[in-house]
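Let's practice the habit of predicting before peeking. Look at the sequence and jot down your guess about where helices and strands might fall. Then scroll down.
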Amino acid sequence: MAGWNLQRGVITDYNPDEEKLWSLFNYVFSDACSKRNTYKFGFIKSLLDNAFNGMENSEGIFFSYSQIFARFAENYWNLVVKYDLRQMRSDGKSVYSNVEKILKEAVDNSVCAFLEFSSLDVIKQSSVISRVASECRKYVVGALYNDFDGVIYSFDLKHDGLVLNYRVYEFMLKYKSELERLNYYSWAKFLESVNEDNAVVHLLNKLEFATPRRSDLSIYREILRMEFEENTCFYCGRKLGNKIHVDHFIPWSFVKDDKLWNFVLACPACNERKNNRLPNREFLAVIEDRNKQIIRKTNNRIVLNEFSGYSDDLLIKMWNYAKMSGVKEYSLKT
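Done guessing? Here is the structure:
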């Protein structure tokens, strides 16, 4: 049976070594792996973008299809709607994949063409995600499983999600930055073959920014200030004035996600000095203690939802993997 037509699959090797995993990923990124469109690249990017949102169970790390394909839809919205990049080789009938058609129908010559995906109304977002998820569950989940020889995850399309092999999960975190770069490069190479020259200008940058940084973090600032009475800079301890920055403790460039447990309030000077770097390891104990207090104190459903999937050792793992991936450490002592 062709991979795309698989309805379920079990993990065939729970303890693959790094050499085997690099071989499998390099095969998927290569031209030897069959690709009529960019779905596989988009799926891998969605797994990497969601890396810290999974839930551990006895088999591995569970990711819901709604998690994966919400990010998939957002990434494609920017590439297709914002940058007008075609994602499929023409089959003689159409130059657009079904996901592209879904997005173009959602725009429908309306003001939506000028909006970020996150700015769409909830009903339209949900509709797009549902249709994209239906398409990708049918054509990419089984296909990618097959390309990885059943090593990467187990799945059943009748269930709510897939379970990533724990060894694969550790590998993807350890080499997250390298895998992102390889995925971008392979995706860009494919896009160059199906798009006009004027569309592929700054192609790697377009792929890098397909998942936008959330533009307004004020809700997190207010939650931390008002509900948990944080009124001093997390790093230098000085009282915060009128200008308050919301900082990603583990840099956004590595995490590619916005979660309350990774946010701290900082004065402009400390935030600008830190920039895209890791705080000293000593700050890990501080933010972990802060997060424990938040969980203990709150009954706010929004806050508790933000902490879904959070564990006591998560930030330590993230800090270590970010360091291994080349994120610089920076002293924030005053």
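How did you do? The longest strand covers residues 60-64.
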